[in-house]
Amino acid sequence: MPLSKIIVVGAGPSGLLLAILLAKAGINVELLEMTRALDTNPRASHYTDSSCREFERAGVLDALIARGFFPNGVSWRKMDENRTRLVRLINANPDTTDRYRMVCLPLDQLGILLEKELNKYPNASIKYDHKVVALHDKEGSPVTLDVETPDGVSQFSADYVVGCDGGNSTMRKLLFGAGNFPGFTWDKQIVATNMYYDFDRFGYDDSQFFVHPEHWHMVAKIQADGLTRLTYGEVGGLTHEQLLERMPMKYATLLPGNATPDQWKVVNFSPYRVHQRCVDKMRVGRVLLAADAAHLCNPFGGMGLTGGIADIGSLYDSLVGIHQDKADDAILDIYCRERRRIWHEQINPISSVNMKRLFSIDADEIVEKDPFINMVQKIERGELPPPPPGTPSVTEQLMYDMTQHYTKA
Questions:
Q1: Is 365 exposed, middle or buried (0-12, 13-18, 19+ CB in 10 A)?
Q2: pLDDT value of residue 139
Q3: CB 3.0-4.6 Å disulfide test: which of 100, 180, 215, 368 passes with 176?
């Protein structure tokens, strides 16, 4: 039976992407966002091969490629005077015709592209300044949300409601309570900044991780004009004001060339706590969770955004299968099971190792002690053959094809 309407809560990249895909399939979509505009805080900016496949399905990959750029690779380095490179993974040749290679663009600019695309569909709408405050899912009736709007509290109803409202998800709290989010919070804090500095004269790659017990950090070019994401670790428990006060000291330590404040320019500053958490259920009745609303991980390696976009691809195929009468409602239980399995078996362990690698192993010993870094060095030396054609990448393994569970012709 065709679906009459789906409500998506949260206008981040995952919510916008899901709304576009559903609208393209002819399903009426209402996107509710509690803030008055798209988020501009420094967050993810690297979109992998698997994510690009979903952007292609949504019709925005060409626009993303036109505005973004293809990074030349990623390296791991020491925090010595010369910022010595330990190992390097080179990305695909920028001249390749492969459309599904990693592309970079700040997340707020991606949001603008997605919003522009969604606005093309008359069966979709975005309502800003709409905060969900209550949820009603009574069998035999549509799912109903009580929503605070500029004109007072109103009710919105749909066949299904999808929470894509981020790590502080209201939808998750309404389903499970404010304190119920299994997992743990790291005792270290992260500060994400967007900034300009002349890294090229020091031989930096487009992306690199620095291994150090105290001054571990990441430097990644995220825009063709040289805008750079500098994300560094800090001690836990500091306030926003304390972290901001410490930033010039951290920059002077992290940046090469004895940098002084007149040589760098900070565009955004965003400290945040880091979590490894996943809900016990991503489906409760006709309410579903996806991306950061359902699970969180640290940002090193891009597993959070990539895993969230993979959620959206699987959930879209599930919902459109129901809409087109190719699957029944039970497919959503499989969505819940498989997406949680992928988080526990891949996203959580890989992202945890990615973060620990930066501060828990001595940089002089990392090549010998870290199996991944050792493998990268062997690849550099030509001691390991390339993977056979058709071998799925690590990020492609985060995807799950729900169409194999369609039960009707």
A1: exposed
A2: 83
A3: 180
Looking at residue 97, its pLDDT comes to 57
Residue in this structure with the two tokens 């291994």, named with its chain if needed: 211
The amino acid at residue 313 is G
Quick check: helix, strand or coil at residue 135? strand
Distance separating alpha carbons of residues 7 and 207, to the nearest angstrom: 37
How many helices (H) and strands (E) would you count in the chain?
Answer: 11, 19
User: How far apart are the C-alpha atoms of 96 and 19, rounded to whole Å?
Assistant: 31
Mean pLDDT confidence for 58-87? 94
CA–CA distance, 260 with 242 (Å, rounded to integer): 20
Does the reported pTM lie above 0.90? yes
Look at residue 218 and tell me whether its pLDDT is greater than 90: yes
pLDDT digits (tens, 9 = 90+) for 36-67: 988 877 677 889 989 999 999 999 999 999 99
* Tokens, residue 106: 């700040």
**C-alpha 346 chain-centroid distance:** 15
Q: Which pair of structure tokens corresponds to residue 31? A: 């996107």
Q: What is the pLDDT of residue 40?
A: 73
Q: Are strands 217-221 and 207-211 parallel, antiparallel or unpaired?
A: antiparallel
Angle at 347 (CA atoms; ends 345, 352), nearest 5 degrees:
105
Cα 350 to the center of its chain, rounded Å: 15
DSSP codes of every residue in 189-258: EEEEEEEE---GGGT--SEEEEE-SSS-EEEEE-STT--EEEEEEEETT--HHHHHHHHHHHHHHHSSSS
All domains of the chain in start order, with CATH:
6-72+101-183+276-360+387-405 (3.50.50.60)
- Directed axis angle between helix 107-118 and helix 13-24, to 10°? 20
CB 267 within 8 A of CB 194: yes
Residue identified by tokens 């498989």 is 338
Q: State the average pLDDT over residues 231-244.
A: 93
